[in-house]
Specification:
heterodimer; A: about 120 residues; alpha/beta; Rossmann fold; 5-stranded parallel sheet; 4 helices; 5 strands; B: about 400 residues; Spore Coat Polysaccharide Biosynthesis Protein SpsA, Chain A; UDP N-Acetylglucosamine Acyltransferase, domain 1; 2 domains; 9 helices
């Protein structure tokens, strides 16, 4: 029987990033959903059963930190990877909700590795 | 932490949050923890409140509006904000999780977490020194109690260095401490965390199916993988187990109040080295008088009792009881082992024993409470040990 593809949500306000990530991650064999802002992301979280969320922090309106605060406790089993251009949010307590923090780079290898790692992580 | 419902103290918590329930005649339960803070030099306090907190708010305003914000001292009341979540505080750990932004802003090295509903005197500085010396992730203040009383509490197992190596929740067979087989260590609900460790633990907990409770969830998980130590709370000068009471049930509340009445109580309200602060409204001195004459003479007599300002004892005998302000006792009454809250009136020839009469209740002449528990049960709450509780607003007829 064919196994369902693992579903990844990319939340990022930059179109070029969304297009690039979708292409690259689909090539890796994942199903990729896209959200252009925090509100869209929260709607998708409510509707879909996701395996991982890749979340930008700085976005117009609600930011990624608020998104995390809203979904923790609600859909508390979605692993989150923060994907920000800025490393300094690592010090912010609320970013500790995320399983991983990957600083944006043109090379997506680190992000792909972290996704694979989290998907293969045995449940506690 | 002042957000518990205080269900086991019902009906005293019908109108009041548990920390706002009166204790010792003139105090509110929260005054003891806050006085400890004040006496320990801790003046930056967040009070996490939730249920029926109108009376607690009022008391905080009247009694505790004493810190100077210009010196960065404060007590800030933080009910659930529901900014990022749709629920109230789901447990003690969730109440901190929902206010993680405050920790972010303050960035303290350590966080002292206290329950606002226990009666004890403790210098928290000593526990902080202990915590820093051990360089541990978490210190849990504990008291040693007799093993047979520990079955309905959280019991810690420690090694000789006070490191926690096991935890039992309400155990049938509580573990004893290594140095005394008859004693067990139970948590006082007083914790010191390294801030970063606290944040990581409450985030981890928020993501789990959990009751989001420090005692039941966070601490049992932490002792398996982190350095967690017991701070053994003892009387510094006497070296004895220090006084600590959880007044969580009506029976323990009544008992702890009665303990204040001994000639030399372990918990001394008159200790000028550790003053307990509260708010007292303007009231004339308590007055005890003879009433009537000849055969109708009734002497006002009070023994082993606390009588607050504004009380009028117009004849009648008060023994082993606590009277809050503005209580009136009329001639030929007998009041024994009772707690009468503010504004209670006891009519002539009434008899009350082993009872708690809540604010403003009038007991009519010749009425008896506590002498026939079967009858009392038809109208009032009667506890396991036979304490009769008359709730606020009850019309006794």
């Amino acid at each position: 029987m064919e196994q369902a593809l693992k579903k990844i949500l990319i939340v990022d306000d930059e179109e070029s990033i969304r297009i690039l990530y979708k292409q690259e991650l689909e090539d890796e064999g994942y199903e990729v959903l896209l959200a252009t802002n925090a509100y869209e992301a929260l709607e998708i979280v409510d509707k879909e059963s996701l395996d991982i969320m890749v979340l930008d922090i700085k976005m117009p309106g609600m930011d990624g930190i608020e998104v995390m605060q809203k979904i923790v406790g609600k859909k508390n089993n979605i692993p989150i990877i923060i994907n920000s251009a800025y490393p300094h949010f690592k010090d912010s307590f609320m970013t500790w909700v995320a399983e991983e923090y990957v600083v944006k780079s043109s090379n997506l290898q680190e992000l792909k590795d972290k996704i694979k790692e989290l998907l293969n992580k045995p449940p506690e | 932490m002042a957000g518990g419902r205080g269900e086991r103290l019902y009906p005293l918590t019908k109108e009041n949050a548990k920390p706002a329930v009166t204790f010792g005649g003139i105090y509110k339960i929260i005054d003891f923890t806050l006085s400890n803070c004040l006496n320990s030099g801790i003046r930056r306090i967040y009070l996490l409140t939730q249920y029926s907190n109108a009376t607690l708010d009022k008391h905080m305003h009247l009694a505790w509006d004493i810190f100077n914000r210009e010196l960065d001292e404060f007590i800030d009341n933080i009910p659930p904000q529901k900014v990022n979540v749709d629920w109230w505080y789901r447990g003690t750990a969730d109440s901190i999780f929902q206010n993680i932004n405050i920790l972010e802003r303050e960035r303290p090295q350590h966080v002292l977490i206290l329950s606002g509903d226990h009666i004890y005197k403790m210098d928290y500085r000593k526990m902080l020194y202990f915590h820093q010396a051990k360089q541990c992730d978490l210190s849990v203040a504990c008291v040693e109690i007799n093993k047979e009383k520990a079955h309905n509490m959280g019991v810690f197992e420690v090694d000789d260095a006070f490191r926690i190596i096991g935890f039992q929740e309400k155990p049938a067979r509580p573990r004893s401490v290594p140095w005394d087989r008859s004693k067990s260590l139970v948590s006082m609900g007083v914790y010191v965390f390294k801030t970063e460790r606290l944040v990581r633990e409450i985030i981890d907990d928020a993501k789990r199916e959990s009751e989001h409770d420090f005692g039941r969830n966070i601490i049992p998980r932490m002792i398996k993988k982190r350095s967690v130590f017991v701070y053994n709370f003892k009387d510094e000068t006497k070296g004895e187990v220090a006084y600590w009471r959880d007044v969580g049930s009506l029976d323990s509340y009544h008992e702890a109040n009665m303990e204040l009445l001994k000639e030399n109580p372990v918990f001394d309200l008159y200790d000028t080295d550790w003053p307990i602060r509260t708010y007292q409204e303007q009231a004339p001195p308590a007055k005890v008088v003879l009433s009537g004459d000849g055969e109708g003479l009734s002497r006002g007599v009070t023994i082993n009792s606390l009588i607050s300002n504004g009380c009028l004892i117009i004849g009648g005998k008060i023994n082993g009881s606590i009277l809050s302000p503005f209580v009136q006792i009329h001639s030929h009454c007998r009041v024994e082992n009772a707690i009468l809250m503010k504004g209670v009136t006891v009519g002539q020839h009434a008899r009350i024993r082993k009872a708690i009469i809540d604010e403003g209740v009038t007991i009519p002449p010749h009425y008896t409470i506590g002498y026939n528990l079967e009858e009392d049960r038809k109208k009032f709450t009667v506890t396991e040990s036979g304490i009769v509780v008359v709730p606020q607003g009850f019309i006794v007829d």
